[in-house]
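Researcher: Re-running this chain for the archive, since the previous output was lost when a drive failed. Same request as before.
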Amino acid sequence: MIHFKLISFLAVFLLLLIGCANPFAPAEITGESTSNLLTDQEDPDGVLINFKYAYTFKDSLVYSDLFDSTFVFLSLDFNVAPPIPIQWGRDVELRTAGRMFDFFNTLDLTFNVKKRDTLTLDESNKPVKIQDIITFTLTFDGGASIPTLNGEVEYTYIFRDPKWLISQWEDLQI
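Model: Regenerated C-alpha cells:
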C-alpha cells in the first residue's frame, strides 16, 4: 500500500513539474529577435534603422550609440522674436531624448532620405563623411494631444571604424 502511494505521489509530482511554467520567467521569443532589428551601423542607412528602433522602443542605450563624441545639434528657437540659435552637444542630446522617451508612451517616427552627399573620402577613396537631407514625421502618443511634427533635418555622419555615427544634426526650415 505504501509502495503504491509513493509511486502515485511521484507520478503526480513529475506531471506537475513537467507541466509547470515559471510565471516570472520571460516569454520565449519566437520569430524575429530584436538583434535582427538592429544593425552594426556599417553605413548611414544602418544608423537610421537604429535611430528609428531607438525611438520606437524608447531605447536610450541604442540611442546613445548613434552619436559621435563630437556631436553637435543645431536649430533655431522660434519661441522668441527674432529666432535665436540653439546648439548643444552629445550629453544634452542624450538627456533631452531620455526625457522625451520617459514622458511619452509612444513615438512613431517615419523619415525619408531626400538627398545624400559624400563630403569626404579617405586615401583609398572610401567615404568617411556623408551628409543626408531627411524629411520626417514624428507622432507623440498617437497625435491625440500634441500635433504631429513634420520637418526636415540635415544629418552629417562620420565613419569611426568599425561604424558610422551622427556627428551633426541640424534642423532645417521648410
